[in-house]
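Please produce the structure of this protein holding flavin-adenine dinucleotide.
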Amino acid sequence: MKRLQTEIHEIETASELEKLVAENENVMVCCGRMGPMCIPVYDTMEELESERSTIKFYSMAFDSPEAAPIRNAAMCKGFMGLPFTVYYKNGVMVQATSSIQNRSQITPILDQHFK
Amino acid sequence: MDEIYDVIIVGAGAAGLTAGIYSSRAKQKTLILNEGAIGGQMVLTHEIANYPGVESTQGYSLSNTMKKQAKSFGADIKSNAKIIAYHLEDTIKWVELEDGRTFKGKSVILAPGGRPRSLNIPGEDTFKGTGISYCATCDGEFFTNKEIVVVGGGNSALEEAVSLTKFATKITIVHQFDHFQAFEHAIKEAKENPKIEFVMESELRSFNGNGTLNSVDIEHLPTGKMTTKNIEGAFIFVGYSPNTHEFKNLINLNERNEFIVDSDLKTNIPGVFAAGDCIAKKYRQVTTAVADGTIASLSSSEYLRNLK
Ligand SMILES: Cc1cc2nc3c(=O)[nH]c(=O)nc-3n(C[C@H](O)[C@H](O)[C@H](O)COP(=O)(O)OP(=O)(O)OC[C@H]3O[C@@H](n4cnc5c(N)ncnc54)[C@H](O)[C@@H]3O)c2cc1C
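Below is the modeled complex.
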């Protein structure tokens, strides 16, 4: 069941996440709610999606039990702010950020890991 | 680039979106440029219960409806638009974006709103997202069974502190004055809550911890005495400042950096209007921003009519 009203694709299950990450070289997932700290990240991803065709942009509902692989990821340890935004390169989580991020904070991460 | 808009609106909060609805519905070629999240402060508000005609709604829903309305009348809305230069003096005004795009317009409505103030003290950047938060609705549950501080003494600080008592074991409100600047009912509710304590006439001086936040240093202002308080979280609600810094040498601002406007919301430059939380006024609400957006759009329509 979809829980987020955003224009980016939503991952609904842990197995979908696993498959997506396994089959794509560059993946960014924003795991959040429809809250004030999360919406700006979705908005930025929506824009970047049309500009960066080599990266897959997805959202996932933080409150879904299926999002446990992100909520419990080692890189997200100590995070206390939504959303948890994670980046995968060749199946491996290479970066994670907590709370609101703007375009000028996100693009250097994409440039660094997804060249 | 050569297309000329009738009106360029800077900011897509309640004021900018309302101006966009009115201008595009009046068949004016309307462009709305927005730097942050569409909806502005409305999306920061979990529940809006005082917008007339709507019993109660999520801020996100209200802003999404306004955005759809503006689009349905033909307004062009561009998000993540970072404007680096304004040329407002001539009859045809234009703005330059960071990515090189430029847009021309016959009139401009400035509705850049405000942003949460931060404390700018050591540790604040380090612990954002790992102990420091600006949104109780978003992050409250991460502080379940923890002791936290809330900084501020206005309506937001007191109301959010009360809502955080659902999660935290104890909340200390730290406020710089000896009284609160909030509605009586908000003060009463906070004072009656057994989980809330108050440290008045005091300011935070630093956030401390190793990886995660574990204490704050607080100065008692009248005596200068410093104390360290062990806590695991901090919520900061110290008000908003207008997003007008980039207009400093372009448009007349008052001592609080708010746009100076007349009752038609005209600024000192012909064809440039301002609306919403960024103008000099006493009350800042969605309803007042919406009213400003309406007036600015109607004033700009009159200006455009007189241009012809
Ligand atoms: C936590 C909280 C709770 C609130 N609760 C309520 C409530 O319950 N009821 C109520 O009526 N009011 C409430 N308010 C107040 C209300 O939200 C605001 O008064 C109103 O939304 C202001 O609208 P605005 O359009 O003037 O500005 P904003 O909402 O601040 O919008 C301005 C927009 O302009 C953008 N911008 C800024 N600078 C630029 C630039 N240079 N170029 C392009 N874009 C720019 C911003 O990113 C933003 O999107 C609340 C506010 C907060 C923060």
